[in-house]
Design brief:
heterodimer; A: about 500 residues; Rossmann fold; six-stranded parallel β-sheet; three-stranded antiparallel β-sheet; 20 helices; about 35% helix; globular; B: about 475 residues; alpha/beta; formyl-coa transferase, domain 3; 3 domains
Chain lengths: ~500, ~475
């Protein structure tokens, strides 16, 4: 534990550095559960043998001892601002490909973005002192940072040479930008017919609503994608639940959600194209993924529903229009999620509430309409169910509610804030959140979801890097270009 | 190269080789893209994953979606459902309104709810009660022929039934086994999970929705985003495992927990908490790192006379983005808010919480007497990025998605015309495009095809199993 000491906080600035993992507030506050504490859970289920096998073979801590799936695959990535092409490159990086990210010599503007414009929340490289935004660092995993100005002729020549030897090229630039410079798919595929070219954007490289730029050259960024596919329209609380302009509005996601989805689909399509190239077709191809469409791909059945009976989906806040119960509702100290759709689970919820509130038993169990699983999804049935649920919840805090509901084997859990997420015992045990030693000092990060595998787990090696950190190494390795030559180009502003 | 190095052949020279290629190079880029993706002719191109065969013991959305990506890319997928009832998602439908029935079929007909849509395209549907010992050898027979399996049972269940990774990898060492569920090994290993639990538990809900001081609540993403996106991430893992297997000939097992997915997607949230002790909160329709970059409410709806309330009352929102200095200056000029530009000249100043509150309030005041399309048009004419927030009808009617083939009608072999917004939209591929052959089929629709044609079980035996409810 850190030593106890007095501090004086007069302004926000005085708190900087105080909260860092190792000092005033070490992480985790409570230690993660030990195997000895978890073992009874395994035993109670009579699955100790299988659970031990799982821990032995899937354990996160063993990831570095295992092979990487994409060793030898070479990926180049060019793009600014957005997370689509970055998360896609990170997936390649996490699975073992050699990934080079090209930035202009001035750097990706995302490096400078910081919450609420507060520069004190930029991360600082502990050796060089260079600063970088947290979002950039988190979303560039295992990628080599190389600078190159592709708007210069020299830069284009260099880019072409590099592209002639890659398996995958990820393009996160505006539509036609690379093509205009003579280094797009059309021009590069001749030198490298095996290349898979993946364009990742908001709405498209072509078509009436294709990606736009403002008169001053500003790009479209998320949430333009999720606004264009009805995702935003369909998210949020309805206007009869909260007044418009005060919460009862269409709502964007807290994250740039469409970027992440597009990136994942970009990775899938690129690997499928590589499979086809190597096993069947022999050539590369162009792939185009957009945030709006990739998000629409997983928009449940919403547009299909419009085709079915001209329904336009509206907002339903924390409720789900397809399942009862399947929602979170306010409780005494936050929000409580309760799920249970099948008869067994649905009645279990009722039995649980009934202990404190006889009303639920009377109105729900005696209502013939609510006895059938499908019928419970009618809107009035949802309103009835959730009105009573919320009435029960308003006298419970999250812990009380969860404890009571879990006694009935229900999937129930509170809405957790990030401090609670980071301290959640299961998350610490896996761990899903852990401290990784980066160039920016120890950082608390989330592990990759695919880190738990028998043979080729994904893994984070490094995150973020100084601008142009890998210039010398990559230019030598990929082009045989020595330091002097690189320096020469640097002076010309090309690198 | 020609055998004789003195001979110059046109195909050895750089540049276009034929008139067709020359024209392709000269074509405007947009037209070129349109030409190579060739929307509408997907089915005559090859399948990317031709020859890959996958088994799916899945239900709901999360794990079926991990397999549907493979099926759309051309893999042969068999979905094994429990006899009679099938996937619980078949009985799920928005407000219990929409069920579909086959237009023509000799097999048992039950309605399937719209909840089943998009996670089960192109699959073959088999029924088998694989937990009874009588069916085990037939399950093994399939495993021997297949490349992999995705399942979603509570951990250890398949192992107990002798059809887990430990048993199947003995039978077929190339087998790729995927478990998708809530938590994975650890203290909550046997905890059940849903999409909504992932949203709630792992931090996503805590940053989505209006801030408490704006009167808002933590808000659920409209779709089952964590189910779907975790499914996509599984497919990523499967593709990587297939790649590695080509080199080594070995299968693997993936354990993928959906509850973890949102935490990984939270960007700077976790790091900010670790480094600065700050717990990120909801910030509504604005952006924490850019301003102006948010959704504003306009005074008038675009369709005040429409019948549907979603058109009539809710066509009032515009996404406005002007975070670079020049853009913000222009935005302030066009909306008559020059004082705001003077006050918040730098990007970081504008991004401060108080500044955002002031700027968006002023913009909404300016938009109070205008309709959504008026606001968008004024800003677009000034060269600023602004787009209306569209609803399902507008997406359906959009010429963009129609032209790109991402929203289209599918004349389903069994169910007839169904509007489709999935599959084709996951990503356009030039040479091996994704495609949708059918939405889904009834429970056990392909029993005969698989039991008789693949495994050689006589029809009388199949009938007997059916009568016993083994299949």
């Amino acid at each position: 534990m850190a030593e106890k000491r007095d501090i004086e906080i007069k302004s926000r600035a005085d708190t900087i550095g105080l909260m860092d993992l190792k000092d005033v507030r070490p992480y985790p506050v409570t230690p993660p559960p030990t195997y000895e504490q978890v073992k009874p859970v395994y035993e109670k289920r009579k699955a100790l043998d299988f659970c031990n096998w799982s821990e032995e073979n899937l354990k996160f801590e063993k990831r570095y001892g295992k092979d990487e799936a994409l060793t030898g695959v070479r990926v180049m990535d060019i793009g600014l601002w957005r997370l689509g092409h970055k998360f896609c490159s990170s997936l390649f990086g996490e699975s073992g490909a050699e990934v080079v990210s090209i930035e202009p010599p001035s750097g990706d503007p995302l490096r400078k973005l910081t919450p609420f414009g507060r520069e004190e929340y930029l991360l600082q490289n502990t050796e060089t002192g260079e600063k970088c935004g947290m979002e950039f660092v988190n979303e560039t995993v295992n990628t080599h940072c190389v600078t190159l100005d592709v708007e210069t002729e020299d830069g284009q020549e260099i880019f072409k040479k590099m592209a002639s030897n890659v398996d995958v090229l990820i393009d996160g630039m505006p539509p036609g930008y690379m093509d205009n410079l003579g280094i797009g798919y059309r021009q590069l595929k001749e030198a490298n017919p095996g290349m898979v070219y993946v364009w990742i954007g908001m709405l498209g490289q072509w078509g009436p609503w294709k990606d736009k730029q403002s008169k001053f050259g500003q790009w479209m960024l998320e949430p333009f994608s999720s606004c264009a596919c009805s995702w935003v329209h369909n998210t949020g609380l309805a206007q009869d639940l909260l007044p418009r302009g005060r919460g009862g509005d269409p709502t964007r996601s807290g994250i740039w959600v469409a970027d992440y989805v597009a990136a994942t689909q970009g990775y899938i399509s690129a690997l499928a194209a590589l499979y086809w190239r190597d096993e069947l077709g022999g050539t590369g191809q162009m792939v185009e993924v957009t945030g709006a469409e990739a998000l629409m791909d997983i928009l449940d059945f919403d547009i299909t529903w419009y085709g079915f009976n001209a329904s336009i989906k509206g907002r339903s806040g924390g409720w789900d229009p397809n399942l009862n119960q399947y929602a979170w509702n306010p409780c005494k100290d936050g929000y409580m999620m309760i799920g249970g759709q099948t008869d067994k689970l649905w009645y279990n919820i009722g039995f649980c509430f009934e202990r404190d509130d006889i009303q639920f038993g009377r109105l729900i169990h005696e209502d013939p309409f609510l006895k059938e699983v499908g019928a419970r999804n009618a809107l009035h049935a949802l309103i009835k169910t959730y009105s009573l649920t919320t009435r029960w919840l308003r006298d419970q805090n999250r812990v009380e509610a969860e404890t009571k509901l879990l006694q009935y084997q229900l999937a129930a859990g509170p809405v957790l804030y990030i401090d609670e997420v980071c301290e959640f015992p299961h998350f610490k045990y896996r761990p899903w959140v852990y401290v990784h030693e980066t160039d920016y000092g120890p950082l608390l990060i989330a592990s990759a979801g695919l880190s738990y595998q028998v043979r080729t787990p994904f893994r984070c090696k490094w995150m973020g890097r100084d601008l142009g950190y890998d210039n010398y190494e990559i230019y030598m390795k990929w082009l045989g270009m020595g330091q002097n030559k690189v320096n020469e180009f640097k002076q010309k502003g090309v690198i | 190269m020609a055998k004789d190095p003195r001979v110059t052949r046109i195909e050895d020279l750089p540049g276009p080789k034929s008139k067709g290629e020359l024209e392709e190079m000269k074509m405007p880029y947009e037209e070129y893209c349109k030409k190579i993706f060739d929307v509408g002719n997907e089915h005559i191109k090859p399948n990317a994953l031709k020859g890959i065969k996958w088994l799916s013991c899945t239900m709901y959305i999360f794990t079926p979606n991990s397999v549907v990506n493979l099926a759309e890319l051309g893999a042969e997928v068999i979905k094994i459902e429990m006899p009679r009832m099938g996937d619980a998602m078949r009985h799920t439908s928005p407000f219990n309104e929409c069920y579909l029935y086959p237009l023509h079929d000799t097999r048992p007909m039950t309605g399937t709810g719209l909840g089943f849509t998009n996670a089960n395209n192109n699959k073959y549907f088999l029924t088998m009660d694989y937990h009874i010992p009588e069916m085990r050898e037939h399950f093994y027979a399939l495993v021997k022929k297949f490349d992999g399996l995705t399942e979603l049972y509570r951990p250890g269940t398949m192992d107990k039934w002798k059809i887990g990774y430990r048993q199947l990898s003995e039978i077929n060492p190339r087998f790729i086994y995927v478990w998708g569920g809530g938590f994975g090994y650890g203290p909550k290993m046997f905890g059940g999970s849903y999409d909504i639990l992932g949203q709630a538990h792992a931090g996503l809900a805590s940053v989505t929705g209006m801030h408490e001081y704006m009167g808002g609540h933590a808000t659920k993403h409209t779709n089952w985003i964590i189910d779907w996106e975790s499914g996509n991430i599984i497919t990523s893992g499967i593709m990587a495992a297939i790649h590695w297997r080509r080199k080594t000939g070995l299968g693997t097992m993936l354990e993928m927990s959906q509850v973890q997915t949102p935490t990984r997607l939270l960007g700077y949230t976790t790091t900010m908490y670790g480094k600065f002790g700050i717990v990120r909160q909801r910030w509504g329709n604005w952006d924490t790192q850019l301003a102006v970059h948010g959704i504003i409410l306009c005074g008038k709806s675009d369709f005040p006379d429409a019948d549907n309330p979603q058109d009539k009352f809710d066509a009032r929102y515009v996404m406005v983005s002007a975070f670079q200095d020049a853009d913000f200056k222009e935005l302030c000029a066009i909306t008559g808010l020059k004082n705001l530009y003077e006050k918040y000249k730098s990007r970081n100043q504008r991004c401060e919480g108080e500044a955002q509150v002031e700027i968006y309030a002023a913009l909404e005041k300016w938009a109070a007497d205008k309709s959504r399309s008026q606001v968008a048009k004024i800003l677009q004419d000034a060269g600023i990025l602004a787009e209306p927030v569209r609803n399902d009808r507008e997406v359906y009617e959009s010429p963009h998605y129609r032209e790109r083939g991402t929203v289209r009608w599918l004349d389903d072999p069994l169910f007839g015309d169904m509007l489709l917004h999935s599959g084709y939209s996951a990503g356009l591929m030039e040479k091996t495009p994704r495609r949708v052959n059918w939405h889904w089929r009834p429970v056990g629709a392909d029993n005969k095809r698989i039991y008789r044609d693949k495994l050689g079980i006589p029809l009388s035996k199949i009938q007997e199993w059916y009568d016993k409810a083994w299949i």
